[in-house]
Amino acid sequence: MMDITEIEEQAALDKIKSGKRLDGRGLKEFRDIKIETGVAKKAEGSAKVTLGDSKVIVGVKFGVGHPFPDTPDEGILMVNAELGPMASPNFESGPPGKDATELSRVIDRGLRECEALPLEDLCIEEGEKVWKIMVDIHVLDHDGNLMDASALGAIKALKEAYMPGYEDEKVLRDQEQEFKIRKVPIACTVGKIDDKYIIDPDLVEEEIVDGMVTVTWTEEELCSLQKRGNGGFKKDELLKIFELAKEKTTELRKIIE
């Protein structure tokens, strides 16, 4: 992906101030969304999300491990994000950087805060063995708003997932069991430029917004949020963002379901 020029940034800024966007969208429109499932054959559940020109694959794997000391009778959720140089020249090979860490934490928090997963049902032997749910996010192409694309991929992959069986210290992947999630958290990222609010900022727009907030809603409640960028938000601005995100996640939920 080429570096963004000042001319591109100014053109995008001028469009947004006029109530339009460079790609023809309205301020409150998502780019085209495509979701495919079963894309990783060795995973218990997987989904590929294409959001405009951003693409991510999310895989869900189940394994057996020791529980955390403070939750000896609960399973473990682990979310990992991989942002490699093939997705963007701004990403580097090696250990997860701050962007990958932030992405994985936002997706993890959205699932964990609303208790979407029945972790207490994943205990095999209290204090000794529990199921681990590993959600791996691989970014293929970065053209902005990886948060929403990854959140969609994670919840869709989990909805498609089946648990292996377990017997006599063996994980039996030929004895799948149905795995049900309790709630469906959906993320929506809202950017602010002056007095304008935009949904699903692309890569150029991410560079020019005053700030962004990723809000995660379940069917009934706001369960997490993450602010990015240097700009601040007043209380009434945040309330507008929350309501806008609630409206748009309702639309996204229809795609997931």
Question: What report would you give on this structure?
Answer:
The structure is a single chain. The protein is of the alpha+beta class and 257 residues long. The protein has a single domain (16-256), classed as Ribosomal Protein S5, domain 2 (2-Layer Sandwich). The chain has five helices and twelve strands. It has helices spanning 6-17, 98-113, 146-160, 203-208, 235-256; strands spanning 33-37, 45-51, 54-65, 76-83, 123-125, 129-141, 162-167, 170-178, 186-193, 196-199, 211-217, 222-228. The strands form three sheets. Strands 1, 2, 3, 4, 5 and 6 form a six-stranded mixed β-sheet that branches. Strands 10-9-11-12 form a four-stranded antiparallel β-sheet. The protein has a two-stranded antiparallel ribbon with strand order 7-8. Strand 11 (211-217) and strand 12 form a beta hairpin. Helix 2 packs across helix 3. The mean pLDDT is 94.
Spans of at least 5 consecutive residues whose pLDDT stays below 50 are none
* CATH T-level topology: Ribosomal Protein S5, domain 2
Helix content: 25-40%
Give the beta-strand count.
12
Roughly what is the average pLDDT, rounded to an integer?
94
Distance separating the two termini: 33 Å
User: CATH superfamily name?
Assistant: GHMP Kinase, N-terminal domain
Radius of gyration: 19 Å
- Determine the number of helices (DSSP H or I, runs of at least 4 residues): 5
Number of domains: 1
Reported for the largest beta sheet, the result is: 6 strands, mixed
Proportion of residues in extended strands? 25-35%
Sheet/helix structural class: alpha+beta
CATH architecture: 2-Layer Sandwich
What is the element string, with H for helices and E for strands? Answer: HEEEEHEEHEEEEHEEH
Kindly provide the name of the CATH class: Alpha Beta
Shape: elongated
